[in-house]
Specification:
- The complex is a heterodimer.
- Chain A is α+β, with helices and mostly antiparallel strands.
- In chain A, α9 crosses α11.
- Chain A starts with a strand and ends with a helix.
- By secondary structure, chain B is mainly beta.
- Chain B has a single domain, classed as Alpha-Beta Plaits (2-Layer Sandwich).
- In chain B, 10% of the residues lie in helices and 18% in strands.
- In chain B, the strands form three sheets. Chain B has a two-stranded antiparallel ribbon with strand order 1-6.
- In chain B, β3 and β4 form a beta hairpin.
- Classes of the chains: A alpha+beta, B mainly beta.
- Chains A and B meet through α3, β11, α6, α7 and β15 of A and α1, α2 and β6 of B.
Chain lengths: 421, 91
């Protein structure tokens, strides 16, 4: 390839495909390079995408995209050994417009990358980018398998462990910034899924678990309903996992065995196991001379404790990167000063706004009491409220007794939580 | 649904490369007290044999944790060459 591209996009995930799709629609010459056999081959996530970002530039995308189920039911479960307390929320308004969809990335990412190709972008799979190409201390392209390919702008969309951002000097890796996600795809008949999760046909549920399931490590469990499978998994902060010397894969194995979880996955067959790190607070600088960083590569993720978001941020940042390339092409200026327009766009849009809104959440979510003490207090309290085994107390007295010795911390944590989340 | 990590990895599709993508300088591992690699790797690719750390790159699911979670910094992390390594069918 001797041709020079307007933009080379490293990675055909949602951020990369959104950038390539937008650039191609604007008439620019965009190349997407993907190291997997096909887009999505290397990509892992819990299983749910919030729809708003993609719906902005591909209205009604779900009518043709390979989505699994539209999520209309949200469940948050505090887990103890034998007991659990759940908040179960269902809302018809999540249908119009759709709030979120469960998806399988191998299918979805191929579809999205093909949309970019249909729009005019070039996609080359099976290529690992080995290095950035530099000219006069500016990023000027990529080096892959000894070949040098030039571009005005390189867009790093290479995921949470972005070697491109690192090579450009935009990112350093620290263990405390990352969580580890592990996941299983468990096959079950469509009818069984709809019965177990109380779902209308083609509608879906998302269930998050806090408490006993992560062995006192900050994090949580999840189940997302697909058409004929469940995405079942665990997310834990890596530094805390190491500190406790617990085998990561043992946690997901035990999650399956939990009495509450095992009833939901019973009779199912594990089809696939996967794992990936999540850049919880691993932010990268987002631009330099000749380069932009989008999605997980830039650490553009939000964990509010209840909503866990990466794909919508990736898609919106990919689209913003395309706008910034367009602006730079117009001025024929690919310096960091000109490309800083990308960050301005993210600040005006929800991406950096939401990250700023939830910037205290990671610290709050590291509080051990959320995963040990509070689920136990909740389970014990509700046990006492419903158990009839002799003399009964009034609910208020049970509440006072159940929280004895912890009330100050509870009130402080509640206030912190309200501010952070 | 109590399956071992070996059985779990048996469910994952791989195109195994002859070239190892992750290089570990194990000469420093004997000085390491934490040996965190025995815990964080979700594919259990690090094992302790006769007091020595061994790393098996085949079966690596490319989660990225060893890039930064080794306290001695002896893991030279890269992705497998294009087309090689894990390929998820569901993801």
């Amino acid at each position: 390839m001797t041709e020079k591209f307007d933009a080379i996009i490293v990675g055909a995930g949602p951020g990369g495909s959104a950038a390539a799709y937008s650039l191609a629609k604007m008439g620019f010459n965009a190349l997407i390079v993907e190291r997997g056999k096909y887009p999505g081959a290397k990509n892992v996530m819990g299983g749910r995408m919030y729809a708003h970002a993609l719906n902005r530039f591909m209205p009604g995308f779900w009518k043709e995209a390979p989505i699994e189920r539209m999520v209309t039911r949200e469940k948050l479960t505090f887990l103890c050994n034998e007991a659990s307390v759940s908040l179960d929320f269902q809302d018809g308004e999540f249908r119009e417009p759709p709030n979120s969809f469960t998806i399988l990335r191998a299918n979805f990412d191929q579809w999205f990358a093909n949309k970019a190709v249909e729009a005019g972008a070039t996609l080359v799979p099976n290529i690992r980018v080995d290095d950035l190409l530099w000219r006069e201390k500016k990023v000027a392209g990529i080096i892959a398998g000894g070949d040098k390919i030039e571009a005005n702008v390189v867009i790093a969309a290479d995921g949470g462990v972005s070697l491109m951002a690192e090579k450009a000097g935009l990112k350093k890796f620290e263990v405390k910034q990352f969580a580890l996600g592990m996941k299983e795809i468990i096959e079950l008949p469509e009818k069984t899924i709809e019965d177990r999760f109380n779902l209308a046909h083609e509608e879906g549920a998302a269930q998050l678990f806090i408490g006993q399931c992560t062995k006192e490590i900050p994090g949580g469990g999840f189940i997302y309903t697909n058409k004929t499978s469940l995405s079942v998994g665990i997310v834990v902060y890596i530094d805390r996992l190491i500190e406790k010397k617990i085998d990561s894969h043992e946690i997901i194995r035990e999650f399956n065995e939990n009495p509450v979880v095992s009833k939901l996955i019973e009779g199912g067959k594990i089809l696939e196991y996967s794992a990936h790190v999540i850049p919880e607070t691993s932010r990268s600088r987002l631009f330099t001379d000749g380069m932009l960083v989008v999605g997980d590569a830039g650490g553009l993720v939000v964990n509010s404790g209840i909503t866990l978001r990466g794909m919508d941020m990736a898609i919106a940042s990919g689209a913003a990167a395309a706008e910034a390339v367009k602006n730079a092409m117009g001025k024929n200026d690919f310096s960091k000063e000109c490309l800083s327009y990308y960050e301005d766009l993210l600040r005006k849009d929800f991406v950096l706004k939401d990250i700023a809104t939830f910037n205290k959440a990671p610290e709050f979510l590291q509080n051990d009491r959320l995963y040990t003490l509070y689920p136990e207090i909740a389970c014990r309290l509700f046990h006492k409220l419903w158990a009839v085994d002799g003399a009964k107390k009034r609910a208020f007295d049970e509440l006072l007794e159940g929280t004895k010795g912890n009330r100050t911390n509870m009130i402080l944590d509640l206030l912190k939580g309200l501010r952070a989340l | 649904m109590n399956i071992s990590i070996e059985e779990r990895l048996g469910l994952v599709s791989f195109e195994v490369d002859k070239e190892r993508h992750i290089k570990v300088d194990t000469s420093l591992c004997s000085e390491c007290d934490e040996k965190t690699c025995l815990y964080f790797c979700p594919a259990k690719r690090f094992t302790l044999e006769d007091g020595k750390i061994k790393h098996d790159y085949e079966g690596c699911i490319e989660c990225g944790s060893c890039k930064f979670a080794c306290p001695k910094g002896v893991v030279d992390f890269n992705y497998p060459r294009g087309g090689y390594g894990v390929y998820y069918k569901y993801g």
